[in-house]
Design brief:
Rossmann fold, eight-stranded mixed sheet, single chain, 377 residues, 40% helix, 2 domains, alpha/beta
Length: 377
């Protein structure tokens, strides 16, 4: 198959969507498909054999890390040259709209996928009154597709509830070769804890943005005697978070990658994840693959990953004391924590990227088969 992938975010940006897409592109190419990626211009022209067509854009005012790429005629020329069998738009917003338009105008079957829970993000940026309007816009865009993909059963239900049609669950995936318990390191514990490796070590990895609700980790940290917190990543909310955590033993580590990132996961005692807006929570799977027990809000796609009391703990996102109690319970027993490490790894081992991509191929073939039947009729 020849697949044109339109995405609002790609390398060199670092986030969960980019992680999924780069593994998907790599796997599709390895499985014999030919992929062309249309994305905001990041300086790349190729990735793992796939051609990248970078589209110039400008930073999003509320989120400067994201670029808004404006559709332009060169996209049509590239598409006509590539002659895709199918177009897949990821989180259609700006560039994705051109993918929808060209799918219709060039009569190419369309798949769309939903990864970022934008309507729920609005309240964190003082725009909650626009949630209803945004759902209508999302519905209008996604219902142009033959098939819509969600990353969890919770998101499948919510999209369907809001009138988005033909929604299937695109299974999760994680790199179990990179993220593994064996990378636990005293040197990394020392680095993350700023020289206190014997202290209870809490970890958060991901974007430092308002919708991640990282500020809610502070009461957890303060409730555990001697605990340290490491925040790995960066983002538009970093300055506010540095002020919020200024009087606590919190280390803003910045970005980590490769085995350093995997070692950070493996070396912590608990991965604390308070976000209530996750469509999946890829970082949770990475933590579990590395054998790090998780404490996460019982919300969005998280219950698809975490089995409470087995491979991690979930807490009621509306209970301010829930995260504290769950983290205290996790840290109270080293035997229980070791068992959870084993169970977390076992769960992650079920979800390799190859399996997730083969499932995606089946979705693509189903859409192409429907298109063939429609043409025959």
């Amino acid at each position: 198959m020849r697949i044109a992938l339109f995405t609002e975010t790609f390398l060199p940006k670092v986030d969960g969507i980019v992680t999924r897409l780069k593994h998907t592109v790599e796997q599709l190419q390895c499985l014999g498909d030919d992929v062309m990626v249309f994305c905001p211009d990041g300086g790349l022209t190729e990735y793992k054999g796939a051609k990248i067509t970078g589209v110039p854009g400008f930073p999003l005012p509320l989120y400067p890390e994201l670029k808004l790429a404006v559709p332009r005629p060169a996209i049509r020329e590239a598409l006509e040259s590539f002659q895709p069998d199918l177009i897949h738009v990821v989180n259609p917003a700006f560039l994705g709209v051109s993918g929808i338009y060209y799918a219709k105008s060039l009569d190419i079957p369309l798949v769309a996928s939903y990864h970022t829970h934008l309507p729920k993000y609005l309240e964190h940026y003082g725009l909650g009154m626009l949630e209803g309007l945004l759902w209508e816009i999302l519905k209008a865009m996604h219902n142009q597709a033959v098939m819509n993909l969600a990353t969890s059963t919770a998101m499948q239900s919510e999209l369907t509830l809001h009138g988005i049609e033909n929604v299937e669950v695109w299974q999760r995936g994680v790199d179990t070769d990179l993220f593994r318990p064996e990378l636990k390191s005293e040197a990394m514990r020392d680095r993350l804890s700023q020289g206190h490796p014997d202290a209870p070590l809490l970890l958060y990895i991901g974007r430092l943005s308002a919708e991640k609700e990282i500020d809610r980790i502070k009461p957890v940290l303060e409730a555990i005697p001697g605990a340290r917190l490491a925040l790995v990543g960066d983002g538009p909310h970093r300055e506010e978070l540095e002020a919020h955590f200024a009087d606590t033993p919190t280390h803003f580590v910045g970005y980590l990658a490769g085995e350093d990132l995997a070692s950070a996961y493996a070396s912590a005692d608990a991965f604390v994840f308070p976000s209530r807006t996750e469509t999946l929570g890829l970082v949770l799977l990475e933590a579990m693959a590395a054998g790090c027990p998780v404490v996460a809000a019982n919300s969005g796609g998280i219950p698809d990953i975490v089995t409470n009391g087995v491979n991690g703990f979930m807490f009621d996102p509306m209970d301010d004391q829930g995260a504290i109690a769950a983290t205290q319970q996790l840290l109270a027993s080293s035997d229980q924590r070791d068992l959870m490490r084993q169970n977390a790894r076992a769960e992650a081992e079920k979800w390799g990227w190859n399996g997730a991509t083969r499932q995606l191929q089946q979705f693509y073939r189903s859409v192409l088969a429907q298109a063939s039947l429609s043409m025959a009729a």
